[in-house]
Amino acid sequence: MIIDRELTGNGGHLMKQICKDSQEMNCISILRAHSEVVEARNHFEFSKAILELALKKTKEGQKFLKELGEKTRSKDIAYCTSQWTFYL
């Protein structure tokens, strides 16, 4: 298997490209904290790892908002979380 060096190691050219326009100051640190992203051997694995990370974080956000909606009994939060159901 060919390992794409721009994905791996400390350089992480592709990580830098992705984080360049991000408003998240710790973007590279966040990506490097996830072994699936760091260990990606090609663009397909890298893309898959990023998408899986995004899905995981989205589900965590949805769970947080659902719990917050139940705790506060906010109709607006309940409505917001119900809209995500179709996408996850």
What does this structure look like?
It is a single chain. The protein is mainly α and about 90 residues long. It has one domain (about 15-85). It has five helices and no strands. Helix 4 (about 45-70) packs antiparallel against helix 5. The protein is elongated. The model has no long low-confidence stretch (mean pLDDT about 80).
- Number of domain units: 1
- Strand content is under 5%
Total number of β-strand segments? 0
Helix percentage: 55-70%
Shape: elongated
> Helical stretch count?
5
Q: Could you tell me the mean pLDDT?
A: 79
CA gyration radius, whole angstroms: 17 Å
Query: Which spans of ≥5 residues are poorly predicted at pLDDT below 50?
Result: none
User: What separation lies between the terminal Cα atoms?
Assistant: 33 Å
| Main sheet overview | none
- Which structural class do the helices and strands define? mainly alpha
| Topology pattern, helix = H, strand = E | HHHHH
